[in-house]
Design brief:
CATH topology of chain B: Ribosomal Protein L14
Helix content of chain A: 10-25%
Strand order of the largest sheet of chain B: 1-6-4-3-2
CATH architecture of chain B: Beta Barrel
Strand content of chain B: 15-25%
Largest sheet of chain B: 5 strands, mixed
Distance between the termini of chain A: 58 Å
Shape of chain A: extended
Structural class of chain B: alpha+beta
CATH class of one domain in chain A: Mainly Beta
Oligomer: heterodimer
CATH architecture of one domain in chain A: Roll
Order of helices and strands of chain A: HHEEEEEEEHH
Structural class of chain A: alpha+beta
Order of helices and strands of chain B: HEHEEEEEH
Radius of gyration of chain B: 14 Å
CATH topology of one domain in chain A: SH3 type barrels
Number of helices of chain A: 4
Shape of chain B: globular
Number of strands of chain A: 7
């Protein structure tokens, strides 16, 4: 090729395509475990600070993975009465409760047609390993209605292989609508106070309308019940992530 | 009449969800016999009920002996799981499970399919024969 003044120009190779690999970019998903956020009250924040220090120390020694309600977990605990001193339980996380060091999560599974639930404490030193077998969020925060659902929705294979999940991808939401056993249920799940979206109510429309009688639409506008945790979360997230990196 | 409508034959598992109560086992609780004994599994028009708990308090937890009324007979039984939440790390079952036992501690049935909590292993001396016929542990 000849440029405008007649001299041969140096070959300019085409620009290399830039591949943005999200994994290498390290776009981290910020997940602060809900037990770090202190409950609303008049307790001295020093107590929560000391508890957080203990929680971080435990997390440095033992890895507690990020998990939500609806994930399928396998927990191995040390049990003096078991055969090889370890006890492995696989189940779906129904609820996460408690704050601070007493944070608990309940796993549910149906073994040999018998529904079993175990409440584990996250920071109990008897726990030897927590593996997340399947990452899957559900439509609700609290899956306690699975007790009144058909047992097929709570059965999970004990020897299930962990389903692989890439770091940077978002956690998929399973929009499964669960079918229930015939009434009576342990709680009246159709009532609006439970605000459940994950049940396929096969009740007559009259019952659903009657359940709305107990709705309290003014609750969401009640200013005294507001507890804005965003600033607290930012502070605690910074503190926790710094300590964990050390 | 409500009880008649909901009362399924007790050999089917679903009778355990008749009441939503989450209590331990005491007098007059309906229990579910978990082993494969004939006495526990033949259908009868009344579910097996607890009539006495061999305990200082009248409340039976896992590992306590109780007296059952089954098919018009009295039989001792061992509690292997209840609906009430216990200490953390212990399993909570969806039905009040019980294993039929003789006066000397020998189990009546020959196999227990449903899972049994590991806590019972602590009292290996009293329950060794029951633990020997158990298949799954939780």
């Amino acid at each position: 090729r000849m440029s405008s003044d007649g001299k041969p120009t140096k070959f300019q190779p085409p620009p290399k395509p830039v591949i943005i690999d999200k994994q290498k970019l390290g776009v981290e998903r910020r997940f602060l475990s809900p037990e770090f956020i202190p409950p609303r009250g008049r307790t001295d924040p020093l107590k929560f600070y000391i508890e957080r220090k203990d929680m971080i120390q435990r997390r440095k020694v033992f890895n507690i993975p990020e998990f939500y309600v609806g994930h399928i977990l396998a927990v191995t605990t040390a049990d003096p009465h078991a055969n090889d001193k370890t006890n492995r339980f696989v189940g779906i996380c129904i609820q996460r409760g408690g704050k601070g060091l007493g944070a608990t999560f309940v796993l549910r599974n149906v073994i040999e047609d018998q529904g079993v639930e175990v409440c584990y404490e996250l920071y109990n030193p008897r726990i030897q390993a927590i593996e997340v077998l399947k990452l899957e969020k559900r439509l609700d925060d609290n899956l306690t209605y699975l007790r009144d659902a058909l047992p097929e929705y709570s059965t999970f294979d004990v020897n299930m292989k962990p389903v692989s999940h890439l770091e940077h991808e978002e956690i998929p939401v399973n929009k499964l609508q669960v079918r229930m056993k015939p009434k009576p249920w342990s709680k009246r799940w159709e009532r609006p106070k439970y605000n459940i979206k994950g049940i396929k109510f096969e009740l007559p429309a009259k019952k659903m309308k009657e359940a709305q009688k107990w709705s309290q639409p003014w609750l969401e506008f009640d200013m005294l019940r507001e507890y804005d945790t965003s600033k607290l979360e930012e502070k605690i997230w910074k503190e926790v992530s710094e300590e964990l990196k050390k | 009449q409500g009880l008649l409508r909901r009362a399924v034959s007790h050999s089917v598992l679903s009778f355990a969800s008749i009441t939503g109560a989450r209590r331990a086992i005491q007098k007059l609780t309906r229990v579910r016999v978990v082993d494969n004994s004939t006495l526990g599994n033949t259908p009868y028009h009344r579910p097996p009920r607890c009539i006495h708990v061999y305990n200082k308090t009248g409340v039976g937890k896992v590992g306590d002996k109780i007296l059952l009324a089954i098919k018009g007979e009295k039989k001792k039984a061992l509690i292997v799981g209840h609906k009430m939440p216990g200490p953390s790390m212990t399993p909570r079952f969806d039905s009040n499970n019980v294993v039929l036992i003789e006066d000397n501690g020998n189990p009546v049935g020959t196999r227990i399919k449903t899972p049994i909590p590991y806590i019972l292993r602590q009292r290996e001396g009293e329950f060794s024969k029951v633990l020997a016929i158990a298949r799954n542990f939780v």
